[in-house]
Specification:
The structure holds 2 protein chains of 2 kinds. Chain A is α/β, with parallel strands linked by helices. Chain A has 2 domains: 2-234, Aminopeptidase; 238-308, RNA polymerase II/Efflux pump adaptor protein, barrel-sandwich hybrid domain (OB fold (Dihydrolipoamide Acetyltransferase, E2P), Beta Barrel), CATH 2.40.50.100. Chain A is built from 6 helices and 18 strands. In chain A, helix 1 (42-60) links the parallel strand 3 (28-36) and strand 4. The longest helix of chain A is centred in the first third of the chain and has 19 residues, at 42-60. Chain A is globular and about 60 Å long. The N and C termini of chain A lie far apart (46 Å). Chain B folds into 2 domains: 2-239, Zn peptidases (Aminopeptidase, 3-Layer(aba) Sandwich), CATH 3.40.630; 243-313, OB fold (Dihydrolipoamide Acetyltransferase, E2P). In chain B, strands 1, 2, 3, 4, 5, 6, 7, 8, 9, 10, 12, 15 and 17 form a 13-stranded mixed β-sheet that branches. Chain B has a 4-stranded antiparallel β-sheet with strand order 14-13-11-16, with no helix packed on it. Chain B is globular. Classes of the chains: A alpha/beta, B alpha/beta. Chain A binds chain B through residues 9-13, 86, 90-92, 94, 97, 104-110, 132-134, 168-170, 172-173, 240, 245-248, 271-272, 294, 296-302, and chain B through 8-13, 16, 83-84, 87-90, 94-95, 101-104, 107, 129, 131, 167-171, 245, 247, 250-253, 275, 277, 301-307.
Amino acid sequence: MKKEIIFEMTSPYRDKFRIQAYQFGSGEPSVAIVGTMRGDEIHQQYICSQIVNRLKSIERHNRICDGKSVLVIPSCNPFSLNVSRRFWAMDSTDINRMFPGYDKGETTQRIAAAIFKAVEKYEYGMQLSSFYIPGNFIPHVRMLDTGYQDNESAKLFGLPYVSTYKPKPFDTTLLNYNWQIWNTKAFSIYGGETNTINPKNSEQTINAVLRFLFKIGVLNSDVSFPAYESVCFDETILTNLKAPQSGIFVRLKEAGENVKKGESIAKIIDPYEGDVIEEIISPINATVFFVYNKPLTLQNAILFKLLKQN
Amino acid sequence: MIKTIVSSNLPVDELFRIRKNVLTNGSAQKRFCVVSGTHGDELEGQMVCYELGKIIGENMDLLNGSVEIYPALNPLGIDTIQRGIPNFDLDMNRIFPGDPQGSMAEQTAYLITEDLKGSNMVIDIHSSNLFLREQPQVRINVLNEKELVPFAEKLNIDFIWVHDAATVLEATLAHSLNSTGTPCLVVEMGVGQRINHGMCRQLEKGIFQLMFDMGIWKKSPDEMDIFNEVESHKAMLCKGDTVEFLNAEKSGIFLTEKKAGENIHKGELIGEIVSPLEGKIISTVLAPCDGYLFTIRAYPVVYEGSLMARIFKQ
């Protein structure tokens, strides 16, 4: 293992801002793994730290194939993590909306440029991501549908689902969008949570990453647990359930649970009088793919994304 | 007449509303809209909206058409001193034209876009941000240069910046409107969280000039007493690769005596980045060219890369 600082910057009063990368194996750039970009992605940070930990052991036991290298960047944004701010603490810009970056530009553009320079030559790229709506997902692989996405490779993670979605204009500055455009097969890995640690889900994600490394020939022996035969779908088939009213949101079903048509899956409570003002009823037999996880909901907020069962 | 274009309940005993003031008179069918407050920390538009509503309201006989004033597209942001929408990750000006099936913010953006569509003109007033001070200017996507520059020249601003197209900017309100045939001019001026009265009056005069030229207002602002003290400005047109960006090479405290709107010469001192701890200058910032300084940093703390100034090269 080699540790390398891929970006360093002074601060007026804080310690230096550093982005550290861990290199395993040597030879052709095979896989780059990027962890936290936002300061609340604690789950992603934890998973990355565990991947580094496992890869250290794997490398010690000579289980990385000759001529293959893996780069792991556990955190692109330790400054925000340390002060519990989701975005860049100075100006609230989002590093993951700055790609491919610009090394002569604004601070977060420079950070993005340094990250992109470090990871752009890799054949495969994976990012441990969080969603722009707070909530919990079934662990899955997500890809932008740019025409460059690779469903077959995505299945090699062995996570239950692989989803694709059409990028909107604001997605064109994401790391994964730019990875794809510059010929890296890019995947977002959604491990379930964001600012909490769930060891069970984490283990599944860690194993999925290691399984992928084995399946593409970077590791020479399988180090992971059994896998799913991934179901691939376009996200337009998901059924979004929205809050008919605002209030206190009490979810009765979690991500990954099956629900029946007509079943009550959440309640919205009047915050003053305690009455149930809305019951959220599943309109289909489905699996909960995403569930909103904040205790207060706005009217019309997306509460559930359901995947219809055939 | 005050109209509500978006209404939705917040979780605890509060109605979220986006409202507009509709002022109508005469027979003309033309519709002129002024919007502001997409970014909750940009406040110049508040004064412009107030004064427009007041002047027009007191002189309704001079109006021939409809003027619609939307002072707060992001009311929660304004009330909480936040640039964005509270509890929402994305910049509101990156989610247009919105999505009726999306999150509440995306639905709001959709309803705003639908409400503005079909206007003869939309003026979208921004105020830079907390960090930068801007001379009054209009920014125009190069794709709309031909149609919009003649309108922008009426607005009594100092500077028109025709900038390159970028995919991410397709999600702005202005692009969403311009791409569907509703002309929209984006004004940038001043600095976040403050109101520069002089700049507001300068723009107000320009708005009345544009309305006068479009036949919506019957009196030239040159004949309006309220604008007696407001100078007329002729905008410089800036396009192509003619803007020099000065980004900080060191982190520290940026000190400057420069004001936006000054002409400067190559080699002239723009400012210094200093270390208060060590009592020394750590970077001297010099003008790399002759030109017109139209942006200067207002917030002194800088990191490497922080924008300090923009110069229109001449």
